[in-house]
Amino acid sequence: MKLTHDYLQLPGLFYSELQPVPVQNPKMLVYNDALAEELGLSDDKDAQLLYFSGNAVPKEARPLAQAYSGHQFGYYTRLGDGRAVLIGEIEKDGALYDLQLKGAGRTPYSRGGDGRAAVAPMLREYLLSEAMHALGIPTTRSLAVVKTGETVLRQIPQEGAVLTRVAKSHLRVGTFQYAQEKGGNEAVRTLADYAIRRHKIPAGDNPLLSLFQYVADKQAELIAAWMRIGFIHGVMNTDNVSIAGETIDYGPCAFMDTYDENTVFSSIDRQGRYAYKNQPRIGQWNLARFAEALLGTQDEAEAQLPAYEKILTQYEKRYKEAYYTGMAAKIGIADPDASDRKRVDDLLAAMKKSGADYTNTFVALTRGETCTATQLSEWTEDWKKRLTAIGETKEAVFARMRANNPVVIPRNYAVELALAAAEKGDMAPFHKLLAQLTDPFCYDQPTDPLYTMPMPAQERQRYQTYCGT
Fold it and tell me: Which partner from 111, 168, 316, 363 sits 20 to 30 angstroms from 44, CA to CA?
């Protein structure tokens, strides 16, 4: 495995070099052969088990844990990789990709934690990140999950595991917050120069402002994509905002069944800060914290503030454009106007009133099935008139809808059943679900109802997700 160590060009305040902590009895639970092939990794099974358990590292490797901070539920705290080790970067097509072991043992940033991870949360991240990739949503990827043969203590004893995560980088808004706190403007500029070079961001006359614009645009597009598929991240702290615009950290996230913009799944989000409807606004709030870190105590900060405020204002417009363009595509419309935006809003209101399933409603429209709920049937008549007025062929309209409306998403019910079986040693349900999730637009083949039906109502009312840390 040929690794680079680009991150080590940064000053030492940004990381601590250390080795992953070996595990007792590693066993490969799942390995992403397709991703491994994309990255040009060896198919040596023995080497894979050693490297992705943390029991060995490539000879040239210089593993490290990254330091960063973050606003967690609105409160600032110093953080860092408390259980993750970056073993290096792999170069592919001129870009670098981090290889990070999650659950690799204690680090200087563990804050009293054991540095380990459990089987179910790591398999959950594997499932959901690969599902998001198949859905076309920017995301970190999962390469492997290795069972460690050790027990980790959470609410109950659980089997330990290590996840190998692949990312364009692990630079976060929280990394810049940490830089400003620990090293001031000089450290921020050093980190910004690195980020701009690493992600090939056009720097312009004002590199910090160019970086802010880049991240703001990426976040607007990413959160719009989340909203279109009914995804609720659950823990949108600034340490979970990737400047590369990738979805990162699949702890308490989940997908909506019945449409309700107030939906919250996370057990720790008691006030609904990160509810589905709040995600766009929180994205803007997080960007404001990013702006504060970039501006810091610069002498010219006051003069530059209006330029940052303008980008923050533009974020909302860019988000809405991305959101409504994507939502219009879900109902077959390529170039939405103001009436189409209202049409989208009316559809969601009708779905909420009738208790309709979010994903299945769009699938039914795509298949031309009749919606029985009064509110939806009234909306459907108006929608059909709009499609007729556009003048496109039915084939073009429904091809657009098929490309934007997945048949299969990571249904909470199916995910939990697969993880429960995996914890008992049966990986068959996991692999069956994974196969369906990596082919989400499967209109031309039969789909197991388990993967398309919402969670039973009595279970949905009490369903919660957990961080798994």
Answer: 168
Q: How far apart are CA 13 and CA 183, in angstroms?
A: 8
Residues 28 and 65 in one domain: yes
Q: Determine the pLDDT at residue 321.
A: 98
Cross-strand pairs, 164: 101, 144
Catalytic residue among 81, 98, 114, 239: 239
346 is catalytic: no
DSSP state of 240: G
DSSP H stretches of helix in 66-206 = 119-134, 173-198
User: Highest mean pLDDT range out of 257-266, 320-329, 458-467?
Assistant: 320-329
Residue 336 has pLDDT above 70, yes or no: yes
Within-domain flag for 44:
yes
Check if the beta carbon of residue 83 is closer than 8 Å to that of residue 56.
no
Q: How many other CB atoms are found less than 10 A from the CB of residue 96? A: 18
- Residue in this structure with the two tokens 């960063």, named with its chain if needed: 68
Tokens describing residue 466? 């957990």
HSE value, Cβ hemisphere, 13 Å, CA-based, for 42: 13
Reported as a single tens digit per residue, the pLDDT across 385-394 is 999 999 999 9
Q: Is the pLDDT of residue 260 over 80?
A: yes
Residue range(s) defining the domain that contains residue 62: 6-167
Residues 106 and 51 placed together within one structural domain of the fold: yes
pLDDT above 70 (res 129): yes
| Average pLDDT for 82-108 | 96
Q: Are 143 and 167 in contact (CB under 8 A)?
A: no
H-helix segments, 301-411: 301-330, 338-354, 358-367, 374-390, 394-404
